[in-house]
Write a structure and sequence with these properties.
single chain, alpha/beta, seven-stranded parallel β-sheet, 33% helix
């Protein structure tokens, strides 16, 4: 399936991250007539002049609501944020757990807040902006390790569970969205191992041809989105277009 016309407005959430910025740059080329919206806490450098950047902390619903209230029709939303680890700074450090003995309630809550609750809140405020008469896309970065059926190694409990929760949220959103927006698509996207800060501490042992640049992964994910139809809504797909079990 191909789009009959370019999106009227596109939103990239997490535009200051490696993959988020690559997605923003790619859609700027693919859709030269689109209005480009970008959300992040810090402003990305050297933005395309068409980009309307807004500082948004997506863990704060008031900021999401205020930013979304400025939109007219929006027909593509890609959430490119995620929390796997966090260094020492203004907030407590977070590391993916190697064992259940390492579970920390505050770290788990922060992981769920960004990986699962934030996308749900974004959906709450941007899905009403979707047109009913044409194709619209809501996508969020998921992860293969969020698959319950594919979990063979254990560990990384907070991250796995938060991505599994995200997959359920997307599935539930897709069911409701289909009732009112029959042309809409709501999916999770697994970008592979991308050479960004999120994966940097965990790249040891990753084959060179399996460690993607942000530009490569962004292009692959956007290519996948173009091929999907509303019948695929509620599912998770990887960068190659293969369905990821949940």
């Amino acid at each position: 399936m191909t789009e009959a016309q370019p999106p009227r407005s596109i939103l990239i959430v997490g535009a200051s991250g490696g993959l988020g910025r690559a997605l923003l740059d790619d859609v700027a080329i693919r859709y030269p007539n689109a209005t480009l919206q970008a959300w992040s806490r810090t402003q990305p450098a050297h933005l395309d002049p068409r980009v309307i950047w807004t500082s948004v902390d997506i863990t704060r619903e008031t900021e999401i609501a205020a930013a979304a209230a400025t939109f007219g029709d929006i027909v593509m939303v890609i959430i490119a944020t995620g929390l796997l680890h966090r260094g020492v700074g203004s907030q407590p450090a977070i590391r993916p757990e190697k064992t259940y003995r390492a579970i920390d309630a505050a770290a788990m809550a922060d992981t769920f807040a960004l990986n699962a609750i934030a996308p749900a809140l974004i959906a709450k405020h941007v899905l009403p902006k979707f047109p009913r008469e044409r194709r619209a896309v809501f996508a969020a970065l998921s992860a293969r390790v969020g698959s319950i059926s594919d979990n063979r190694l254990g560990g990384w409990i907070s991250y796995r569970a938060s991505k599994a929760a995200l997959n359920q949220i997307l599935r539930t959103l897709a069911i409701e969205l289909a009732r009112t927006h029959p042309h809409a698509l709501c999916v999770g996207l697994h970008p592979g191992t991308v050479d960004t800060g999120l994966s940097k501490p965990f790249q040891t042992g990753v084959a060179t041809d399996k460690l993607f640049t942000p530009a490569h992964s962004a292009a692959a994910l956007l290519n996948v989105l173009v091929t999907l139809s509303p019948a695929d809504s509620g599912r998770v797909f990887d960068w190659a277009g293969m369905e990821v079990p949940v």
